[in-house]
Design goal:
The complex is a heterodimer of chains A (about 230) and B (about 200). Helix content of chain A is about 65%, strand content about 0%. Chain A has about 230 residues and is mainly alpha-helical. The longest helix of chain A has about 30 residues, at about 135-165. Chain B is an all-alpha fold and about 200 residues long. The termini of chain B are far apart. Helices cover about 70% and strands about 0% of the residues of chain B. In chain B, helix 3 runs antiparallel to helix 4 (about 65-80). Chain B is globular and about 55 Å long. The chains are: A mainly alpha (about 230), B mainly alpha (about 200). The interface of A and B includes residues 1, 11 and 25 of A.
Chain lengths: ~230, ~200
Amino acid sequence: MSDKRINSDEPGDPRVSAAYREMADERPPEHLDHVILNAARSAAKPRWNKAVAWLRPAAWVATIGVCLAIVIEISLLPDPEPADFDRAVPAAVPPAATSPAAVDRLEKAAPRDAEPAAAKSVQKPARLPSEYSPGRSDEAEVSNRVRELRQQEALQEDTAPSTLLRGAPATSLAEEAVTERYCDETATADPNTWLECILELERQGLHEAARLERERLALTFPPPELP
Amino acid sequence: MLGLAPRALSQSACLAYAPGMEHKPEDSALMLRYRDGDVAAFETLYRRHKDALFRYLLRLCRQRAAAEDVFQEVWGKIIKSRDNYRPTAKFTTFLYHVAHNCFIDHIRRNKRHGDTADIEPDSQPAGGDCPEMLVEKSLARRKLDVALRSLPDEQRDVFLLYEEAGLGLDEIAAITDCKRETAKSRLRYAVRKLREALDEPPEKA
């Protein structure tokens, strides 16, 4: 090693160096080699070297970006469920739903009638397929509606004696809320004019409206009971 | 002059070109690669320096067991310091600086430096020489070994750094924490004593 040096002021002696080279031939034992190399291997953990150091921040940025995109996309989705149902129910619920039999009919017919409303909501592109379950959600809402009608009916039954005493018609608030009137108040003031109005509706082909008005007429002016 | 110039030029060109032809990665580059997790780079570095470092410690400690302990300690420190390694100087300077400090610590710990010398001289030189040559070489080895042991610690340290590590005076001065002229003086005294020991007639040795 010393023979590589070119600095002439160093006081080396080639003869001494050669004699030392001949003498110095000791080597470390092999078990030390194994110990040291094993220590070096165990100390060298896998780590991010400079070549791929940009991968970690890039991965973080990509993850945060994807999360933000998902959150923004979800926040931009419209909330169609309640509004659609409220618009769909008046056409779906039969007007004579005040009696228990009518409520049962409504209960059976509700899933079929709710399908158009669900189909409407399917047309909206913002809904995700995973969260769309038309049968279940609409059926649940219809059953909630039926439950509300039953509660209102129970309230009506509680107040029915007083209304009967006053001779008021046995119509419910729910019925008023969901039915439409085809005959005006002047026509419904008298049973005969009301019946003429119903016949006029039938002549015009509005059988459903005539049926509704006939039911309302029967509720407002019930036929006398036979002894 | 003109006739000698091309030969001198060709010699210098060969000397300058020869290291480049070897394609050996530098020690600092190997250490940096090991810092980045390349264990093979450390193995290359270790095999390149282990023998000289072991002989350096063996001559300093004078005991094989102590030299092995310090040798292992030095490489352990090199491994631990890989994260903080900066190639501001030659790796050899860094390595022998660590070794020198470990040896000083070893002396302070054991207080046994200079008690006994159990380095077993190699009694079987390489074959191929005639018996007279073998005897002469053996005598020279023994004389040099005795002379080396009899050197003061500072002179022996400087001589070993010069011979084993191949360091220059500036680097030796930095490692031994002395001035360059002091290192030069120590080396000169050490070489002179060893030369005198080699020149001594056999009966005096």
